[in-house]
Amino acid sequence: MGTEMTVANASSAARTEILRRIRVAKGGTSTEAAAQSGWGHVTREYRRTSALETEALLELLEDRLRDYDAHVVRVGADDVADAVSKILTTRGKRRIVVPDGLTAEWLPEGFEFVTDDGMSATSLDAFDGVITGSTVAIAVTGTVILQNIAGQGRRAVTLVPDYHLCVVKATDVVETVPQAMEKLSGTSELTTTFFSGPSATADIEMTRIKGVHGPRHLDVILIM
Question: Sign of torsion, CA 204 207 212 218?
Fold first, then answer.
Protein backbone atom coordinates (compact mmCIF):
# COMPACT_ATOMS: atom_id res chain seq x y z
CA MET A 1 0.00 0.00 0.00
CA GLY A 2 2.87 2.37 0.87
CA THR A 3 4.53 1.93 -2.52
CA GLU A 4 1.23 2.33 -4.30
CA MET A 5 0.46 5.60 -2.48
CA THR A 6 3.96 6.94 -3.23
CA VAL A 7 3.48 6.27 -6.94
CA ALA A 8 -0.03 7.78 -6.86
CA ASN A 9 1.21 10.90 -5.10
CA ALA A 10 4.07 11.33 -7.57
CA SER A 11 1.64 10.94 -10.47
CA SER A 12 -0.70 13.55 -8.97
CA ALA A 13 2.15 16.01 -8.45
CA ALA A 14 3.34 15.50 -12.02
CA ARG A 15 -0.18 16.09 -13.35
CA THR A 16 -0.45 19.31 -11.35
CA GLU A 17 2.84 20.58 -12.77
CA ILE A 18 1.86 19.69 -16.34
CA LEU A 19 -1.43 21.57 -16.02
CA ARG A 20 0.38 24.57 -14.53
CA ARG A 21 2.79 24.68 -17.47
CA ILE A 22 -0.09 24.44 -19.95
CA ARG A 23 -1.85 27.40 -18.28
CA VAL A 24 1.31 29.48 -18.44
CA ALA A 25 1.99 28.50 -22.10
CA LYS A 26 -1.53 29.60 -23.04
CA GLY A 27 -1.07 32.96 -21.40
CA GLY A 28 -2.84 32.07 -18.19
CA THR A 29 -1.53 32.41 -14.68
CA SER A 30 0.33 29.80 -12.69
CA THR A 31 -0.42 29.12 -9.03
CA GLU A 32 2.69 31.03 -8.00
CA ALA A 33 1.60 34.13 -9.92
CA ALA A 34 -1.97 34.09 -8.60
CA ALA A 35 -1.30 36.80 -6.03
CA GLN A 36 -0.22 39.19 -8.81
CA SER A 37 -2.98 38.26 -11.23
CA GLY A 38 -6.36 39.95 -11.57
CA TRP A 39 -8.36 36.98 -10.32
CA GLY A 40 -5.95 36.55 -7.44
CA HIS A 41 -7.35 39.73 -5.90
CA VAL A 42 -11.03 38.84 -6.30
CA THR A 43 -12.84 39.13 -3.00
CA ARG A 44 -14.21 35.77 -1.92
CA GLU A 45 -16.81 36.06 0.79
CA TYR A 46 -17.77 32.41 1.07
CA ARG A 47 -19.21 31.37 4.39
CA ARG A 48 -16.50 29.32 6.08
CA THR A 49 -18.20 28.47 9.36
CA SER A 50 -21.26 26.42 10.11
CA ALA A 51 -24.52 28.16 11.00
CA LEU A 52 -26.07 24.91 12.25
CA GLU A 53 -25.86 23.09 15.55
CA THR A 54 -24.54 19.50 15.40
CA GLU A 55 -27.93 17.78 15.29
CA ALA A 56 -29.28 20.06 12.56
CA LEU A 57 -26.07 19.60 10.60
CA LEU A 58 -26.35 15.80 10.67
CA GLU A 59 -30.05 15.90 9.84
CA LEU A 60 -29.27 18.04 6.80
CA LEU A 61 -26.64 15.56 5.61
CA GLU A 62 -29.03 12.65 6.09
CA ASP A 63 -31.82 14.47 4.27
CA ARG A 64 -29.59 15.24 1.29
CA LEU A 65 -28.21 11.69 1.09
CA ARG A 66 -31.67 10.14 1.25
CA ASP A 67 -32.87 12.56 -1.40
CA TYR A 68 -30.15 11.10 -3.63
CA ASP A 69 -31.39 7.53 -2.96
CA ALA A 70 -28.79 6.60 -0.34
CA HIS A 71 -29.73 4.71 2.83
CA VAL A 72 -28.40 6.22 6.09
CA VAL A 73 -28.20 4.83 9.64
CA ARG A 74 -26.75 6.39 12.78
CA VAL A 75 -24.82 4.27 15.28
CA GLY A 76 -22.47 4.63 18.21
CA ALA A 77 -18.77 3.93 17.82
CA ASP A 78 -19.14 0.47 19.39
CA ASP A 79 -22.06 -0.56 17.19
CA VAL A 80 -20.55 -0.19 13.71
CA ALA A 81 -19.87 -3.90 13.19
CA ASP A 82 -23.42 -4.80 14.17
CA ALA A 83 -24.80 -2.19 11.75
CA VAL A 84 -22.54 -3.49 8.98
CA SER A 85 -23.77 -7.03 9.61
CA LYS A 86 -27.44 -6.02 9.49
CA ILE A 87 -27.03 -3.92 6.35
CA LEU A 88 -25.04 -6.53 4.43
CA THR A 89 -27.46 -9.27 5.45
CA THR A 90 -30.44 -7.19 4.30
CA ARG A 91 -28.69 -6.44 1.02
CA GLY A 92 -27.71 -10.08 0.52
CA LYS A 93 -24.01 -9.20 0.31
CA ARG A 94 -21.42 -11.74 1.51
CA ARG A 95 -18.11 -11.21 -0.30
CA ILE A 96 -16.80 -7.69 0.20
CA VAL A 97 -13.57 -5.97 -0.84
CA VAL A 98 -12.03 -3.55 1.67
CA PRO A 99 -9.14 -1.09 1.33
CA ASP A 100 -5.94 -1.70 3.25
CA GLY A 101 -6.07 0.00 6.64
CA LEU A 102 -9.84 -0.14 7.17
CA THR A 103 -10.72 -0.24 10.87
CA ALA A 104 -10.86 -3.95 11.74
CA GLU A 105 -13.46 -3.41 14.48
CA TRP A 106 -15.96 -2.35 11.84
CA LEU A 107 -15.96 -5.79 10.19
CA PRO A 108 -18.31 -8.42 11.66
CA GLU A 109 -17.89 -12.17 11.48
CA GLY A 110 -19.87 -14.24 9.01
CA PHE A 111 -18.75 -12.42 5.87
CA GLU A 112 -15.78 -12.71 3.52
CA PHE A 113 -13.77 -9.50 3.61
CA VAL A 114 -10.88 -9.37 1.15
CA THR A 115 -8.26 -6.61 1.31
CA ASP A 116 -7.51 -4.91 -2.01
CA ASP A 117 -3.96 -5.54 -3.19
CA GLY A 118 -4.14 -3.70 -6.48
CA MET A 119 -6.76 -5.98 -8.04
CA SER A 120 -7.83 -5.57 -11.65
CA ALA A 121 -11.20 -4.06 -12.53
CA THR A 122 -12.41 -7.53 -13.50
CA SER A 123 -11.50 -8.92 -10.08
CA LEU A 124 -13.13 -6.00 -8.28
CA ASP A 125 -16.30 -6.42 -10.31
CA ALA A 126 -16.65 -9.99 -8.99
CA PHE A 127 -17.23 -8.77 -5.42
CA ASP A 128 -20.67 -8.06 -3.95
CA GLY A 129 -19.52 -4.62 -2.84
CA VAL A 130 -16.99 -2.51 -0.98
CA ILE A 131 -16.74 -0.97 2.50
CA THR A 132 -14.69 2.18 3.10
CA GLY A 133 -14.22 4.99 5.54
CA SER A 134 -14.30 8.64 4.42
CA THR A 135 -12.38 11.89 4.80
CA VAL A 136 -15.16 14.47 5.05
CA ALA A 137 -18.86 14.91 4.25
CA ILE A 138 -20.63 18.11 3.17
CA ALA A 139 -24.10 18.47 4.65
CA VAL A 140 -25.52 21.14 2.36
CA THR A 141 -24.75 19.12 -0.79
CA GLY A 142 -25.02 15.60 0.64
CA THR A 143 -21.52 14.88 -0.61
CA VAL A 144 -19.08 12.33 0.80
CA ILE A 145 -15.38 12.70 -0.02
CA LEU A 146 -12.83 9.89 -0.19
CA GLN A 147 -9.07 10.06 -0.67
CA ASN A 148 -6.41 7.53 -1.57
CA ILE A 149 -5.34 6.84 2.01
CA ALA A 150 -5.55 3.93 4.44
CA GLY A 151 -9.14 2.85 5.02
CA GLN A 152 -10.43 4.52 1.84
CA GLY A 153 -8.18 3.12 -0.87
CA ARG A 154 -7.87 3.47 -4.60
CA ARG A 155 -10.56 5.14 -6.69
CA ALA A 156 -11.16 1.90 -8.62
CA VAL A 157 -12.07 0.08 -5.41
CA THR A 158 -15.02 2.42 -4.81
CA LEU A 159 -16.15 2.85 -8.41
CA VAL A 160 -16.09 -0.68 -9.85
CA PRO A 161 -18.18 -2.71 -7.33
CA ASP A 162 -21.93 -2.27 -7.73
CA TYR A 163 -22.49 -1.61 -4.02
CA HIS A 164 -20.74 0.75 -1.57
CA LEU A 165 -21.10 0.85 2.21
CA CYS A 166 -19.41 4.01 3.46
CA VAL A 167 -18.67 4.85 7.09
CA VAL A 168 -18.74 8.56 7.98
CA LYS A 169 -17.78 10.00 11.36
CA ALA A 170 -20.01 12.78 12.66
CA THR A 171 -16.88 14.74 13.56
CA ASP A 172 -15.93 14.79 9.87
CA VAL A 173 -19.19 16.41 8.73
CA VAL A 174 -19.08 20.08 7.71
CA GLU A 175 -21.85 22.29 6.47
CA THR A 176 -20.40 24.03 3.41
CA VAL A 177 -18.13 23.33 0.45
CA PRO A 178 -15.52 25.97 1.51
CA GLN A 179 -15.22 24.25 4.88
CA ALA A 180 -14.57 20.94 3.13
CA MET A 181 -11.98 22.50 0.83
CA GLU A 182 -10.17 23.88 3.86
CA LYS A 183 -10.06 20.43 5.47
CA LEU A 184 -8.70 18.97 2.21
CA SER A 185 -6.06 21.66 1.69
CA GLY A 186 -3.32 19.67 3.37
CA THR A 187 -3.91 16.59 1.21
CA SER A 188 -4.93 18.26 -2.06
CA GLU A 189 -2.32 16.28 -4.03
CA LEU A 190 -4.04 12.98 -3.24
CA THR A 191 -6.49 11.32 -5.61
CA THR A 192 -9.89 12.48 -4.33
CA THR A 193 -13.40 11.24 -5.10
CA PHE A 194 -16.61 13.19 -4.45
CA PHE A 195 -20.01 11.49 -4.58
CA SER A 196 -23.54 12.47 -3.63
CA GLY A 197 -25.63 9.32 -3.45
CA PRO A 198 -25.36 6.30 -5.76
CA SER A 199 -24.01 6.78 -9.27
CA ALA A 200 -26.69 8.09 -11.63
CA THR A 201 -26.80 9.82 -14.98
CA ALA A 202 -29.39 10.77 -17.59
CA ASP A 203 -29.32 10.65 -21.37
CA ILE A 204 -30.62 13.34 -23.72
CA GLU A 205 -34.16 12.08 -23.20
CA MET A 206 -33.70 12.49 -19.42
CA THR A 207 -33.91 8.77 -18.75
CA ARG A 208 -32.16 8.25 -15.40
CA ILE A 209 -29.75 5.33 -15.30
CA LYS A 210 -27.94 4.12 -12.18
CA GLY A 211 -24.52 2.52 -11.95
CA VAL A 212 -22.88 3.92 -15.07
CA HIS A 213 -20.00 5.71 -13.33
CA GLY A 214 -19.98 3.94 -9.98
CA PRO A 215 -22.08 1.87 -7.54
CA ARG A 216 -25.83 1.68 -8.11
CA HIS A 217 -26.48 1.30 -4.39
CA LEU A 218 -25.06 3.28 -1.47
CA ASP A 219 -25.48 2.82 2.27
CA VAL A 220 -23.96 5.26 4.76
CA ILE A 221 -23.24 4.52 8.42
CA LEU A 222 -22.95 7.72 10.41
CA ILE A 223 -20.88 7.24 13.58
CA MET A 224 -22.02 9.45 16.42
Answer: positive
